[in-house]
Amino acid sequence: MVMQTGLIFHPYMRPGRTARQTFDWGVQSSIACDKAGFDTMMISEHASQIWENIPNPELIIAAAALQTENISFAPMAHILPHQHPTKLAVMVGWLSQILEGRFFMGIGAGAYPQASYMHGIKDAEPKMLNDMVRESLSIMEKIWAREPFFFEGKYWNAGFPQEDAPETEEDEQHMLADFAPWNGAFPEIAVTGFSSNSPSMKLAGERNFKPVSIYSGIDALKRHWEIYSEANIAAGFTPDRARHAVSHTIFCADTDAEAKREVMEGPIGYCFERYLIPIWKRFGMMDGFAKDHGIDPNDADLEFLVDKVFVVGSPDTVVDKLNVLFEQCGGWGTLQVESHDYYDNPEPWFHSLNLLAKEVAPRVKLPEGSKAPATADA
Ligand SMILES: Cc1cc2nc3c(=O)[nH]c(=O)nc-3n(C[C@H](O)[C@H](O)[C@H](O)COP(=O)(O)O)c2cc1C
């Protein structure tokens, strides 16, 4: 079994891009990934960030579904505290039917306090947000099960009406529409993990969901796997590293020098200098990388990240760097490439995606005992 490849589309568009440009770039990226042989594409949901300017990932997924053949899609993530669970469950069920098996669902608690505030959550703190995630999920599962209930929760009320079997042809015209997910099964659910004591990884383990981490250093990643697998084993499951997807900044070109120059001088460097390096420092996300390499987080700059943290280089170098990372932290099943704004000149980016899918992924040794293909079935 080979490592799977995924694209995560936040999408880090430079401020000033129009909604139409962002949308176009999403659909173009899905077509390029599908052609290159990527297994999955995940699309973020943000109501507040200029650089992360997609409020409704499902719109890009629906458009991309019609222009792609094999790749699976997931919102990554629908932010459960921000919407009514029934509305979301019905939309997800319908979308998974439209995708006819090429859909899985990412869920998250929400990263940005401004977005929580916009949705009426004034003092967003992780405990409450995670509690909301759990309540929302339990309602969505009841809606998908299509059995009668009425639930009055701490955050939302919801129900599914009792429906009698039709007796006449006329009765049949008035039955409830079926918005259960594709084939009547629950979609595979993926959960985003971020902090080192991640409550999300615990939920993923308990419910046997697919764990998805952002790479933020060796210790944090090891800890994510520990939290996930402890909860997974305690709930009676067998953890499988092949299901773990890890998002990272990855760029591949024909030579090491070309790859480094492109990342330093192109859209990736532009985004890191202006947006991600400041935000990583603010949220403590630089700490893990700094610790791994024995420097002060305040001294971390773009070149440090390109040389020591990102996975940048020719296919041979990228394979070597991934094998070293896998040895250090145990490995994972899906290499989830963080997308960037190559809207003006997609060629180097699409070339990188091609090299990753065709020349890198097949040569990376998966962790011992990997079983399931990481792709989710709806
Ligand atoms: C791969 C990945 C994708 C994420 N996508 C989003 C997103 O689209 N919107 C958002 O508000 N937060 C997003 N987050 C953050 C989550 O909503 C949430 O804050 C975080 O995963 C909580 O992790 P923790 O339980 O480890 O603290 C993402 C996190 C990860 C790891």
TrEMBL record:
Keyword Flavoprotein assigned to the entry: answer is yes
Annotated GO MF terms: monooxygenase activity; oxidoreductase activity, acting on paired donors, with incorporation or reduction of molecular oxygen
- Keywords (A to Z) from UniProt: Flavoprotein, Monooxygenase, Oxidoreductase
Which part of the chain is the Luciferase-like domain? 16-328
Checking InterPro entries in the record gives: Bact_Lucif_Oxidored (IPR050766), Luciferase-like_dom (IPR011251), Luciferase-like_sf (IPR036661)
Listed under GO cellular component are: cytosol
Q: Which Gene3D superfamilies match?
A: Luciferase-like domain
One of its Pfam families is Bac_luciferase
| Family as reported in the entry's similarity comment | Belongs to the bacterial luciferase oxidoreductase family.
Name of the protein in its database record: Luciferase
